[in-house]
Amino acid sequence: MTTLASIPEGFGLETEVINTTARDRAVERCRQVGIRLPTFAELADPPAADSALAGIDPDAADAANLWRVNWFNDASRAGRAAVPEYVVIPPALSGVESPIIMLLGNRFPMIGAHKVLAAYSCLAPRLVTGQFDPTENRAVWPSTGNYARGGIAISKIMGCRGVAVLPEGMSAERFEWLDRWTSDPSDVIRTPGSESNVKEIYDACAALAEDEANVILNQFCEYGNYLGHVIATAAAIERVFEHYTEGHSSARLAGFVAASGSSGTLGAGDPIKERHGSATAVVEALECPTLLYNGYGEHNIQGIGDKHVPLIHNVANTDVVVAVSDRATDELGVLYSSAEGRALLAQRGVGDDVIAHLDDLGLSSICNLLASAKMAAALDCGSDDVIVTIATDGAALYGSERAKTVATDFGGEFGSAEAAAVAGRWLDGVDTDHLLQLSDRDRDRVFNLGYFTWVEQQGVDLDHFDARRDQAFWVALRDLVPVWDELIADFNARTGV
Ligand SMILES: Cc1ncc(COP(=O)(O)O)c(C=O)c1O
């Protein structure tokens, strides 16, 4: 049986303070800047009323904003919501009978994306166990953009150096944000390529790791990322689904769908499946179908990387792999944002309330929506079968990408004829192409593919790699959470904040 004691060393998994000096310095820093750290339990269930948040701009580098690193922010992002914000995508938009519930990640503070949760979940355990000294260390955040932004935001709050490592081809909006939040240009490292060039990010991190002052918080293999979603995202989904069932008593949670960048978000699928018997689908770009076809390639569904299987992906508990084309997400991004596109959607019966939420959908959110519809079609889901997915970030981060798509795909003009063509291409008739319901053999194939990245390339111990086949490994990981929460409580007691 896998127990906490058999969990591998490293990967942020320590259960006690391993460097008291570093921990004490972190305590002192947090006392100086007024940081009280939320526990994982509080990420899942934050205090309903929090007077410390009053008057604090959700986009400021303010210690109080750590208490907004959760799903319970209202539409203004300043107030607490009793139920996480969500939109139910109706058949008129999805093309399937099943309601598709999307939780809205752009309500998160500072970066307008849920990846600040992953950044916090990776850093907090390291901080309280003395693995990160904010007075000496630089926090290195490898990412395709949003995780790095989340990490930089938290680093800034803590008054420590943070380094964003991301491909040079990511959206201009990500880089503009990083310019505003960093003061030293060397704190933003642009690696070659675009979205799916994750190996180049690892190489940059390996070079940075030669300097002991750099602590690499590698979200692709950091189990804090997985656990943050197991605890906080799963709890948010539960709360939303409970809220939905108040008006739809026969609803059943049939599926959870998440595109995989680091596979952190997918972690929420594990407890959800235990409680609801839902199937979990992982989504990737058709232009880079690594899990589906062992494929590779460039794509523009920013945030969902690929060309590798993240170490924290619980492949053996994944039921479906589905690929979505970046042509669909790019073109629908334009349709959803344009007046002509919205007019067309209204004609097709999409309500104003849903249209108003289209600004909440960034490219990977649209990808998740399309994949959810494919999943519903493949599983023969009906109107009581709810698919839950995540809108990781909003449309605001992709204005520059939409301008490119209008130029390249539509000759610089997007009017009603173009809107009709896009709807005909991507909204009419949901298909189940490029979707695989995984057999045990398929799961093994996908799992085994990870060997080449993690064991051969990144030097992960083979026993550790293989232990992840067993669900007991993933369940045992959850035992870390109460241990970390106690350490966080002890840390807060020491700061006295
Ligand atoms: C916009 C966007 N969508 C999806 C993802 C994938 O989420 P995860 O890394 O939890 O798999 C990311 C990750 O950075 C992202 O930034």
Indicate the topology.
Elements (H helix, E strand, L loop, with lengths): L19 H14 L6 H5 L41 E4 L1 H4 L5 E5 L10 H14 L9 E5 L3 H13 L2 E7 L4 H10 L6 E4 L6 H12 L4 E3 L6 H25 L4 E8 L9 H8 L2 E7 L4 H4 L26 E5 L1 H12 L1 H9 L4 H5 L6 H16 L6 E7 L7 H12 L5 H11 L8 E3 L2 H18 L4 H6 L3 H7 L2 H16 L2
Parallel strand pairs: 2-10, 3-4, 3-6, 4-5, 7-8, 7-10, 8-9
Antiparallel strand pairs: 1-2, 9-11
Description of the structure:
By secondary structure, this protein is of the alpha/beta class. Helices cover 44% and strands 12% of the residues. The chain folds into 2 domains: 14-81 and 110-223, Rossmann fold (3-Layer(aba) Sandwich); 86-108 and 235-450, 3-Layer(aba) Sandwich (Rossmann fold), CATH 3.40.50.1100. The protein is built from 20 helices and 11 strands. A 7-stranded mixed β-sheet has the order 1-2-10-7-8-9-11, with helices on both faces. Strands 5-4-3-6 form a 4-stranded parallel β-sheet, sandwiched between helices. Helix 8 crosses helix 9, helix 11 packs across helix 12 (339-347) and helix 11 crosses helix 16 (416-426). The protein is globular. The chain starts with 19 loop residues before the first helix and ends with a helix. The relative contact order is 0.15. The structure holds pyridoxal-5'-phosphate (PLP). Pyridoxal-5'-phosphate is lined by residues 113, 115, 118, 143-147, 259-265, 302-304, 362, 364, 392-393. Pyridoxal-5'-phosphate binds next to helix 4 and helix 5.
